[in-house]
Amino acid sequence: MTLYLLYQFFMAFKRHYIYDPERCEFVPLEYDSKKKLIHSLSFWLINSIVLACFGLALLSNVVGTPAEIALKDENKTLLHQLKKAEVSILDIEKQLNVIAKLDNEMYRSVLGLEPISEDVRMAGTGGADIYSDFDFHSQEASEILRRTASKLDKLERQVNGQMHSFDEIKNYYNSNKNRLRNIPAIKPVNGIILSGYGMRPHPVLGYRRMHEGVDFRADVGTEVYATGDGVIKFAGRRGTYGNLLEIDHGFGMVTRYAHLSGFAEGIRPGRKVERGEIIAFSGNSGLTQGPHLHYEVIVDGKPADPVTYLIADITPEEYLMFKEMHNQSSEFSISFLD
Q1: What is the domain partition of the chain in residue ranges?
Q2: Stated pTM of the model
Q3: Between the chain's N and C termini, which has fewer beta carbons within 10 Å?
Q4: What are the C-alpha distances in Å from 240 to residues 212, 235, 286, 294?
Q5: What is the pLDDT of residues 6-41, one digit of tens each?
């Protein structure tokens, strides 16, 4: 009974009333079943729509719309690609710096051209902030875009400068082919460098002194080649060099080949030789503890690092490797060399 009364009480609040003037009282408004169904469905439909709109608004504020979610994912992917591109640009910059170093130390040095200063190669610019447009992006993206754009602009200037340098080298080569034929630009034997140019402990005499050439591994009887066009200046025995051959290449350049076991047929002072021609055979003569070829380059009466001139017979990678060996030559020596 109590539950029934409570039910009637609550139902009374859900009823609608109209005033009946004839009866002078409010009487319940009665709906037929069809109207009640329409009213109920309309009520729940409107509430569902309102709740759905509220949920979507809340979801878009917290998570984002599908378009925003897709855009965030796209931005994340683009940011990742920007970071990868930045790493690639740094690798390219390192490779370009190696090329610039070879250009100065290897090509321009051998040809007698003035090296290009680092300031000129960097080709710096100044003035207004040309990357300010990137500040409208997120801080992380803005910083990466700034660094990347700056590096790309710098690389473009460096590449243009390097191309200009190569054009200069090419033009110099075309106008100085005869001189370049005389430059000692190949290895004198088909062997690796065992000891480089510079100060080092002498393996026989036991004290540090200047090693004015490089030592190539070569068994007795290995063919020795002229490293550039020239004229035989000396072929005979000379002190600690043992059997020695000298070639005058002109333009103030002379090469020496020491510790030889013998000379090629017809080799004598005054004879002209060409680059790559067999001129002698390696050996173990003179002050040495084992067979090898000692090779020197003399420029204007002063010894020069022979590796600097090996531009026609080695790759840039080999050149850098030999230079590294030279840098370490003062730290060690191989016991069987002169």
Answers
A1: 16-62, 87-175, 193-331
A2: 0.53
A3: N
A4: 13, 14, 5, 11
A5: 444 445 445 666 677 777 777 776 666 666 667 667
